[in-house]
Amino acid sequence: MPHPSTQAIFDAIITWLENGRSLSDDVRRYADTVLGGHDADILREVLSPEHPDFETFAEFLLFPDAPLLYELDGILHPGENVSMHAQASGPALSHFPNTFPDEEINRLTTLLEQAAPPCLLHMPEGAPIQFDIPDYIWRDTVRRLHLDVALSEQVRLCIARLHPSQTATGIRCSIKAAHLRFESAFESLLLAFLEHYPSGDPAYTPTLAFWLHFLSSLPKNIVFQPQQGGSSAEADRAGSTDREADPWHHLHKRHQRLNKALRQSQEFTERLQRYSMDLIMMQGAQAPFVHEDDAREQIRIMERVSLAVFGRPAGFDEDMREADYGTVDPADMTDVMRTLSLLDR
């Protein structure tokens, strides 16, 4: 039996194609970097099927954007963006379509291969550029819609209960794009974030992106027991055997590494103001590979998430076995030796 939303999703994709693609900043950067420019003549030549970069550029233009993903999410999750009161009196979430089986994804792909119209690339000046879409591109494009990713009823209910319509749609799309393992510990960590992290935070979107990336990097044997009012004393005294299964410990290590890299970058900048680059390189120092502003923002995000989810700071550990006193500058040893020689007199 065909999925009830297949035709609606097909119509939404066709409308998205007919509206055309714009010369966005991402498209312009790609064209300038890979194609040698974003002039109309260059792009018209690239979008001819005989050009060697046609397939790659056409696939890049057809990469699903946020408006399309949001519209498809509204088709798959109708009625979920309602208030808590309406949710209590309305139908259960499980009655709504949630995911596509593989046979429906194949059916949608076949429909697009057979009936998809040409696409338009709108230019800032002049007529748009029309190009035909090769059939083989649709298989990867449909997979990028994340129609096969199912969110659990508990996660969907939590999102619908705590977030307004537009925010809830963006959260669901972000979670689907992350392709998380929805096992007990990972789902509990996701729910803990959704429940406890303040949705009114202006940095909610980048914080959610960080949290999803962090969850995808955790090992499979992770263990998480949500604590009321913070972590328990037993968790604080956990031994090294249990630490690899403790998600807070992984967040703490990431926080420490980034904090150390930021400190070393600041020390290198200070040394660069005192000595020439040649002298610093002769001392064996290496330039840090960290963007300081991004590092500070990531550290702030980790600290806020750690307090919200685990009830404890990300940068604090009562049983830290490793102390870092910064980078020793060999050039400063001259001043130290001079001071010591004066004390001996």
Short characterization:
It is built from 18 helices and three strands. The chain has 345 residues and is an all-alpha fold.
Keywords:
58% helix; 345 residues; mainly alpha; 3-stranded mixed sheet
Q: How would you describe this structure to a colleague?
A:
The chain is an all-alpha fold and 345 residues long. It has two domains: 6-151, no CATH class; 233-334, no CATH class. Helix content is 58%, strand content 3%. It contains 18 helices and three strands. It has helices spanning 6-19, 25-35, 40-46, 54-61, 66-76, 84-89, 102-115, 137-143, 153-162, 165-178, 184-196, 204-216, 233-236, 240-243, 247-274, 277-282, 292-309, 333-344; strands at 21-22, 119-122, 129-131. It has a three-stranded mixed sheet with strand order 1-2-3. Strand 2 (119-122) and strand 3 (129-131) form a beta hairpin. Helix 1 packs parallel to helix 7 and helix 10 runs parallel beside helix 12. The longest helix has 28 residues, at 247-274. The chain is flat. The termini are far apart. Residues 83-92, 229-241 and 318-325 have low confidence and may be disordered.
Mean pLDDT: 82
Please count the helical segments: 18
Strand content: under 5%
Main sheet summary? 3 strands, mixed
Helical percent range? 55-70%
**String of helices and strands:** HEHHHHHHEEHHHHHHHHHHH
Number of strands: 3
